[in-house]
Structures are given as structure tokens and as C-alpha cells.
Amino acid sequence: MTGDERPNFFILLEIDPDQPWDKSAYENQLRRMRFRWYKLSSGVQTSPAAVKARRALTLLKEIKYVMADVVLRENERAAARQYLADEQNRRRIELVQTVDLILEKGFVYDVEYAELRENYGALVDHPDVSRLLDGAQKRSLEAERNGPDRLDASQADAIRGRLDELGEESLYTLLAQVDPAVGPTSGLDLLRRAAKELYARTTATADKTKPGLSARQELSGQAMAIFDSADMRRQYDNTLQLEPLDRLCRQYRKALDPVRGIDSRQADRFIREAARFGIEEELARNSLVAYFSNLKWTIALPPATAIGAFVRCEVCQAFNDPEHEFCRDCGTPFEVTCPSCGRTVPAHDICGFCGFPVSDHDWVEALLDDCEDLLAAGDLKGADEKLNSARRAWSLPAGSAEDALAARIKECSRRIADVRDEQRKSDAQRMRNIRSHMDARQYRAARHLLSATHAGFPDRERLLGEVTSRVDAADRWYRNAEQAATSEEKAELYGKALEECADHAEARRALRGTPPAPPRDLRVTALDGLVRLEWQPSATGGVRYAVVRKSGSRPASATDGERLATVASLAYDDESPETGIPLHYAVFADRDGTASQQAATTTTDPLLLTQEVTITSPSVDDGAVELRWALPPNAEGVQVSRTSSAEAGTWTDIAAVEPTRLLDGGLRNDVTYTYRLRARFRDGSGGILPSAGRTVSLTPGPPPPPVGTVHVTTRPGFGFAYRYVRLGWEPPEQGRIVVLKTWQPPPVRSGDTLFADDLRLRGTVLDADAALGHSLTESGACYFTPVLVRHELGYVGDVRRYAAVEEVGDLTAEARRGAVRLQWSWPEGCTAVLVGYDRSGEPADPTVAAHRFTVEREEYERLGYHDVHIGRGTGEADCFFVVASLLRQDDEEFVSSGVRCRARRAKRRWMG
Questions:
Q1: What does UniProt give as the signal peptide span (predicted)?
Q2: Which of 78, 176, 258, 894 is spaced 20 to 30 Å from 35 by Cα?
Q3: pTM beyond 0.85
């Protein structure tokens, strides 16, 4: 199709001519293409796309006319098919010619093959093309340019340095010292074991100064990493193989450094010497060029490929092929668009059309680099100077489009403004810190902060003068104190220096060397659970008081014993005193960490505090009582005595069978016995001091039958309750049932016995009235534990793990042959349900149904079902079903109240 012919309308509209005609799709495509043509026509007027778009817009009437006429449209379709066929044949011929040109060198690079695939798509699989490509050798361009995959240079240098230190050729010879079987062909498993063994030996060596130990330890670690994978091992082997080539490069660099160039004969000798080490000519040639090009040396390769034929980059001095548009090393373009006039000109010259200094581009970039570095270093003034120089050098005429460099100048200007704003904020924060130090009279710290501020810091000179005068005044008081005759005068003058400047370190140190006078008249009073200390003040002003406690003897200093606190008041309460041992208390005056020494006020007699036993496990039986307890700290034993209502308050001592256990038998049932337990302590003189005693009343009798579980059913909720439940249980023969509710695993177990009054300390206790309707305020896992209360004791039953979660929905029962199918909708987040049924009556709770099954939810399942197979009997009978949500948490299962339904079995079929 020539430029004078009108385009085919199927091709122009991008409509497939092989597809059936769809008028609606055609009209939509015409609207999209018309919008695209309008957009393209507003671009650069001389661009091919704009020209083509304007041409298409002039054809709109003709397009509508042709595509609306059936005959003309079919003629247009046939022409489009022929055009596409011709175009396909043209592209195939072009592809064959391109492949033939590529294979002129005898092989194809991977990037060339990928480019063919991208440009020609399925045409690459055409027999004419695949015949050429299938037999051609494919090479990696990156691998050929970069050479074999090797270790990182720094890692390779570190390994070689350590090997040379030990006189070893390679890691293989080093590991052969551990296992003689190790060699360059050894498997990875053997190499890893040898490396780990070498590391273990070096680590276990006691003499860490042993020569070569550090090198062996580092190399063993490198070996473990390298021989951990086949890829790393291949990189190391390549590095080892190419070490002669690296040494050869370094040798040539040292010898030829004065001229910084290699001629063709020297290059030919390099390639021949590399061949003696088994290195191929192509690899040696590529390595020579790569190594010395990076050093900016001139290179002449044999036989006729001269570096002079290449183009040198003005920025990095690397050599490039003449047809390259950009430097292969640094990416610098060889030609640029002048930002002033828009013409293409050499990148490193003045524009010959408008005189704009295009060659200043690199210098301006360097100025901006310096500007950014100075900004990072906090030098705002220097950054501003560099930015102004860049602005003057790269000043575009008014109306010019902003190029990348101008945009960077603008960005640097914005960043400098941001830094100025940050500096203002920083100055404000620094000023707050300075004011805070000044308010605390820490004038040395304030002076240090002010000295570090910049010259433009607000009010800097006045503030410096103020704080310096206060520091100088404190220095004068300090010098006067140093010349004072008595310690009292010295202490007073040091204090004045600190009043003038609170962070005068020399005055504070000197004041610490002058102990204050002690307090007087310490009074100690033992109260319920604490010891109260009160005293008279020290004669020295401005002190605090250190409270010290010690067992066995009086504290001799503020560090002799346990310092409980340092307070400013004249009283202190020891809220956690030790019990059962004699205690002495002392109070010392403390001034800035220096305590009084000579006349500390201490108590004369020790104080002994008693503590009661803790009853851990009470129980009763037929004519017997058992008590278990825990002794308080430092107690030597316990004295047990007993009385009862029949003994008229007469106490009888009873011997305990064990230090922490009493078994009292031969008692009368249904008679309440009171026991008193008094802990015994040893006082300072060796005597025994008993505690006041703890009493407990118990009534012997046969233990009640085991407590069962509690049943949970749901009641209609109200208010803000998440769930409103009713708790039920079998009524006991004696006593009463309460329920302990907890959101965490209960602190009691089934079968435990405890004092009934202690239940309220372990959770929420629900009596019979509260259990008829209890509100759960939140969802989740809940524990209901029934406890039988009889006399003073509570007997723990089986816990009911309840799931306060959403129930299943839409539960139905459908009769099937020999079974009933239960169906429901899964609630969100539910992963399993418990299905229960009973033929004798509706189960009180899902967990006690006569028959129970767990049904797991399949992933993404919305509806669940379970077939219950029930044996056929005679007559009609009801079967009761319940489906409850299961919640699994911490290896425990929690069951909800469930949703119920029932089905009646007729003589021939089930009826839901």
C-alpha cells in the first residue's frame, strides 16, 4: 500500500476481517479510534503518527459510507485479508533475511533470539526460519562479555590473602589437612563436613593467639558458605581457574603503568601467555579489554582491531563503537538536544545555533552533586553557593521547556528550602532545650548547647553572656569554698555555688566529700502488714533521708544492709517487711549521694514480724477432718489446737502428722469443729514467738457424690449482651450448686476441694438465681465450672467449655432412606460443628446428647450437611437433633448451645 492510496478501513479501524460482522462492536471501535486520532493529531504536526491521524479524520465520512454498504464492506473485507496475507509474507521474508544476517557469525546470542521473538512472534516458528535457528549454536551475550561467573572480588581477595598467609594453594588443599580424601573433584557433602570439622577445631582451640588460628577460622567459615551450594562452588572454581589471568593483568599493569597503554604485540603476548594456563583466546582477549578499559588505558588488539577506531567518552574515557549513541560504561549520550533551541548538537560543545553552553552540562551536574553532598553534611550556606553557581551556568531562556537538569536545579532549591525550614524547627527545639537547662539552673549545659549553635541562632550572644555570667559566679563561690577554714563553711559555700549553677560538677564532688549531720530519734511502729518509721530532721539543710533495713544486727552505714528508699519527708512506711526474722532499721541523712556517717540513728531492739500459715487444701470425711497448709517464710513449725461447740470454747492442742498436714479422726459427724493454726518463729534471743493464729471451721461427714457438669442453653438476649444463657444442673441431695465463670482456664480442677468463700477470688460466682439468665458481654471461649457448696467447703465438678459464638443458620431435617439428612448454613469463621441426637427426648446440652458426631467444614463451603443413620423400629417415634458450633483454642474444644430440630419417623418414611 503506497502513501497515495487510501488505507483499508478494516486495517485502519483494527477490526479482524475474519470475524463475523458486529455492527455494535464496529460503532464502539469507530468511536474509540476517532478519539485516538483526535488526540494524536494535536501532537507534533510533522510526526508520522499525527499525519496519519489527520488523514484518518478526513476519511470519516467515507468510512461510514463503505462500512454501511454490505457489498462495499465485503469488498473491503476481502482486500483486508489479502493485505494481511501479503504483509505476513513480507515479514516472513524480512525475518529470514535478518536470521541469515545474524547467523553470518556462526551462532546466535540469547538477546538476539529474544528480540526476534518479541518483534516477529509466531513467525519465528515458521519452517523456513526454524530450519535456520534450530541447528545454530546459542550463546549468552552477558556471559561472553563478563566471562565465567565468579566470586565477588572483595570475597575472592579476602580468601586469597588468608590462603597466602597459611601457604595454601586453595580451599581444597586446606580442607585436605582435615580429610585427605578432599580434592577439587570431591562432592559437596564431603567438602561441607571437612569445613565444619575445621571450624569446630579452630573454635575449640584454647590458645587463641596460636599463629594462623584466625585465618583458619575465617577460611573454614568461607568454605562452609561456598560449599553449601553448587552455584557458589562453581563461582569459586571459576575464580580459582582464572587466578593466573588476574595475576597476568596485574603484572602487565605494573610493568606498563608509565605509558598506560598496550600495543597489539603486547596484547598478542598477553593472549599467548594466558593460553599456557589453559585460558581460551577469546576469554583472554575479553578480560584484557575489560580490565584495562576500566583503567582508561589505550589498547591495540591483534591483528587489526585498533582502539583508535573507537569513540572515547569525554566523561569516563571509555572506548565505544562509533555507531553507539550512549557510552557503554557510564551511559553518557554523545549527542544531546540543546535545551535552549531544541536542536541536536554534540554533547560536549557549545550549541552552534544559539550559543547555549551545552558542554557545561557535566560541570553543572557536578555542582549539583556537591550541593546535595553539602546538604547531607548540613552545610546550608555551601549548598546555597553551589546551587547559585549552577543556576547562573544553566539559565534557560524564558519560555523554554524545562529539561532534566533544570528540573534537578529546581529540586535542589526545594530541598534547600526544606532544610531551612527544618533548621528553623531545629533551632526552636534547641532553644527549648536551652531554656529548660536555664530554668533548672544548669548553666554549663546551656552554655555547651549555645556554643554549638550557628552564628545566626536567635539571641545567641545575649544568652551566651547570661549563662557565662552565672557560671563565672559559681566558679567564684567554689574558689572561696576551697579557701574556707572549716568543713561547715566549705559545705555552705559549695552549696551557694550549686545554687548559682546546679550543674557545677566540681562543687558537687566537693560537697559529696562533706558528710551531713544525721537525723535523730527514730521511732518504729509495727502496723497491719507494714512498718512505720518516723524521725527528727538533720541539722544540715537541703538533705534527703536514706532508709536502711538489716536482719540480725544494726546497720553501721548507709550501705550496710538493704536501702529501702531515699525520701525528703520525715516518715517512711515499709510495706513489704520480711517476716519471721529480727529486723533493725536505720535512717541516714543524704546530701547529693553523701550519707551521714558518725551518728546514724538506729533502733535499739530488733523487730520481729509474724505471718500466718496459708491453708491450701481442706477436706472432710466420715468422722474425720484433713487440713493442709503452707508455712510462711522463716517459720519453724505450727501449733494446732481445736475446739467445738460441744467443748464450750476449750482449746485442745493436736499433734500434726506432718509439718504441713493435719489428719484429725474420731470426730462426730454434723458437729462443727474450729481449728487454730499458729506459726512459730525464733526471736533474737533464741526463744519462740507464735503468730496470732488463723482459725478455720469444718463439719465432718461423708463426702457428697461427685458433682456433674453444667448444661448451657440460650435465652433471648436483650440490651448490649452478646449472648444470654441459662445454666442448668442436676439438683444435689445436700448443699447447693454455684457456678464459677471464667474467660481463662479455671484455677481449679474437677475433684478439688476448697473453702467456699475463696471462690469469689477465682472468678465470677453465679448462684441459682443468676444462673437462670446470665448475660455474656462478649464473644469467645468461656468456662462454666459447677461447685457443690456444703457447710464451709466447695467441691469442684466437671468444667463446661462454652463457645459464645454465632450459631449455624437455616437448620432443617429431611427424611431419606434409613437416614435423616441435617442441613445448615455455616456461620462466618466456624470450622466445625458438633451434631448430636437423642430418641428419648430433647438433649439438655449438645455435649450430653446420646449420640454425637463432629463435622468438619470444607474450605470455602457455605452449606453443611450430615446424614444421621437411625435403626428402623416399629410405630412412630420422634428423634431430637442439635447442631452446635465448635471453637478450637489452645488444644481445647468449646461447644455452643446449638440449634435444635426434630423429625418423626412414620411407618414407611421419616417426616421432618
A1: none
A2: 78
A3: no
Please give the average per-residue pLDDT across 311-315, as a whole number.
Answer: 59
Task: Specify the amino acid at residue 902.
Answer: R
Contacts of 392 (CB under 8 A, 6+ apart): none
How does pLDDT run across 623-641, given as a tens digit for each residue?
899 999 999 998 989 999 9
Residue 457, C-alpha cell as written in the block: 541562632
Asked whether 619 and 793 are in contact (CB, 8 A), the reply is yes
Least confident of 292-296, 356-360, 645-649: 645-649
Burial of 299 (0-12, 13-18, 19+ CB in 10 A): buried
Cell of 239: 575464580
**286 and 300, same structural domain?**
yes
Q: What is the pLDDT of residues 369-421, one digit of tens each?
A: 889 888 888 788 888 888 898 888 888 887 777 888 888 888 999 998 988 88
End-to-end CA distance of the chain: 78
Q: Average of pLDDT values for 273-299?
A: 82
Q: Does the structure show a pLDDT above 80 at 3?
A: no
Distance CA(707)–CA(413), nearest Å, equals 82
One domain, residues 712 and 800: yes
Structure confidence at residue 426 (pLDDT): 87
Q: What is the DSSP annotation of 812-850?
A: EEEEETTEEEEEEEPPTT--EEEEEEESSS--SSGGG-S
Instruction: Retrieve residue 161's grid coordinates.
Output: 590473602
**Separation CA 784–CA 741 (nearest Å):** 5
- Res 854: pLDDT: 94
CB 708 within 8 A of CB 797: yes
Number of structural domains the chain divides into: 7
What kind and span of H or E run contains 802? strand 800-804
Between CA 826 and CA 833, with CA 832 as vertex, the angle to 5 degrees is 80
379 and 411 both lie in a single domain: yes
Per residue in 128-139, pLDDT (tens digit) is: 777 777 767 777
With 0-12 / 13-18 / 19 or more C-beta atoms within 10 angstroms meaning exposed / middle / buried, residue 657 is: exposed
Q: State which of 667, 683, 698 marks the end of a domain.
A: 698
One domain for residues 420 and 321: no
Instruction: Tell me the C-alpha to C-alpha distance, in Å, between residue 572 and each of 453, 585, 586.
Output: 46, 11, 11
Beta strand 637-644 with 652-654: parallel, antiparallel or unpaired? antiparallel
Spatial separation of the C-alpha atoms in residues 245 and 586, rounded to whole Å? 82
Residues 358 and 418 occupy one common structural domain: yes
Q: Which of 857, 844, 860 is nearest to 898 (CA)?
A: 844
Instruction: Give the model confidence (pLDDT) of 760-807 as tens digits.
Output: 888 999 998 888 888 888 889 999 999 999 888 999 999 999 999 999
714, 814: one domain = no
- Residue 308 maps to a domain: yes
Residue 240 CA to residue 223 CA, distance in Å, equals: 14
Residue 522, domain CATH:
2.60.40.10
Is 287 contained in some domain? yes
For every residue of 577-615, DSSP letters joined together read ---SSEEEEEEEEEETTEEP-TT-EE-SS-EE-----EE
Whether 858 maps to a domain, the answer reads: yes
Residues in the chain: 912
Q: Are 396 and 402 in contact (CB under 8 A)?
A: yes
Residues 772 and 811 in one domain: no
Task: Based on the fold, state whether residues 822 and 908 are members of the same structural domain.
Answer: yes
pLDDT at 322: 60
How many H-runs (helices) and E-runs (strands) does the chain carry?
Answer: 24, 43
Q: At 820, phi and psi to the nearest 5?
A: -125, 125
Beta bridge partners of 326: 333
pLDDT value at residue 598: 66
Q: Is residue 231 part of a domain?
A: no
Question: What per-residue confidence (pLDDT) applies to 836?
Answer: 92
Measure Cα distances from 151 to 186, 245, 248, 547 in Å.
20, 15, 18, 67
Residue 529 structural domain: 515-608
